[in-house]
Amino acid sequence: MTFEEYTVLRSPALLRYAAVLTGDRDLAQDIVQEVLARVHARWHRIARLDVPDAYVRRMITNEFLSWRRGRWTRLVPIGRFAEDHRPVSVAAQPDTATVYAERDALLSELARLPRRQQAVLVLRFYEGLSDSEIADVLGCGPSTVRGYASRALATLRVELDPVDLHRNTPALVRKDR
Q1: Which end of the chain is more exposed for a tag (fewer CB within 10 A), N or C?
Q2: How far is CA 67 from CA 8, 16, 18, 72, 177, in A?
Q3: Full-prediction pTM beyond 0.70?
Q4: Region of residue 49 (phi > 0: left; psi between -120 and 50: alpha; otherwise: beta)
Q5: Which long-range contacts (CB under 8 A, 24 or more apart) does 104-108 make?
Q6: CA-CA distance, 161 to 79, in Å (whole number)?
Q7: Residue 100 and residue 118: Cα distance in Å, rounded?
Q8: Backbone region of residue 33 per phi and psi (left: phi > 0; alpha: psi in -120 to 50; beta: other values)
Q9: Digit-coded pLDDT (tens) for 55-99
């Protein structure tokens, strides 16, 4: 497969992964563009790998973890990045405004986590990777991945607001410790 074929085939998936990781489609595009420029320079070696996608995903993750470090700490994601998702049944869907409000609340909380914890949650729940696969991407051990996930999930614990239970619309409320 040529580099051009690879980018046409895999760019949308790589961009979605980076968008979930960063919480911002514009920054995701910057990161994917930067990584693909480096991939192009090394394509003859990367193409020979058993799973070039895993290597490129790791490059995107590393770029996210190190890219303009000072700038990432001030960003809170706004807007939508999952426009590709279409509901199967319109009748079973909750209020659209509620869905977006909950997603924005979750993204805001996710953005407050340290980058490695963010990366672990995205790799686990969005990409569906196992602890050992995440450890390969991040360059650490599976026990470290479990520790990051545990701390991240403890930080993100949510509970249903009792007032909203009567309206059958769950609200995300940060649980006090």
Answers
A1: C
A2: 24, 18, 12, 8, 32
A3: no
A4: beta
A5: 104/77, 104/78, 105/172, 106/156, 106/172, 107/23, 107/76, 107/77, 108/76, 108/77
A6: 24
A7: 20
A8: alpha
A9: 999 999 888 888 655 444 444 444 444 444 444 445 566 677 777
